[in-house]
């Protein structure tokens, strides 16, 4: 009797998982079809035409916890974080490890963005703290114990806090996403002036996108602002997609991260970081240590 009951429970669990999987795919395919039918703005990425030319490369020297991603146009390299042992890592545009920087004075790093020159911002997930720092080209350790910081402290904190961070150069503001419960997209103005010696006049606002039907994702794991076009890319780990939004907050195009979509041989397992380089190529990193690059199809 117990064996029969266990079998029934396992069958029900499997059916539930398969139903959830199908629902995710239905949403992704429906939104992809709908977006591809609309007229594409001239400056749009048009993510539907992007295909993976680096597909799930395991980053040598990294075992786990690969998260966040930002592009530095001055060094033409990418930076990511490891939130287990607190490390910043610099990567080539081909996913090769260039250096590791040990970070002290932080806990649970989850977001990282390049601002300009050697200026960056770090985000802690649980504390919802933003930290300003400078990082030299040859630096191997970084102590943030006394660095200028701003704690926002929304909701209950925990492991559903700040998940992604991006600098909007045109708007001179930080964009921050909270993972879920609830989803939030915040703008923070004035904070980066702290290292410039200016008087801080900080303004924190929540955009209307977080509760909008246009935001059809289950969670938010990263974002990147493309200042030249004013378009923003949002990454969802649970929904397995990257969505492009225009300056008015309307969805424009979609990049599917399921197996068989966007040239992928396997589904991206846990997408945690997103960046775009000067050539318009899209980069995604996924736990444990996987690197992806997407380029427009010829």
From TrEMBL:
Primary site of residence: membrane
Cellular component, GO, one term: plasma membrane
Cited CDD domains: SdiA-regulated
Keywords carried by this UniProt record: Cell membrane, Membrane
Pfam families: SdiA-regulated
InterPro entries, A to Z: YjiK/CarP
Subcellular localization(s) per the UniProt record: Cell membrane
This protein's name: Uncharacterized protein
Organism: Halopseudomonas laoshanensis
High-level lineage: Bacteria, Pseudomonadati, Pseudomonadota, Gammaproteobacteria, Pseudomonadales
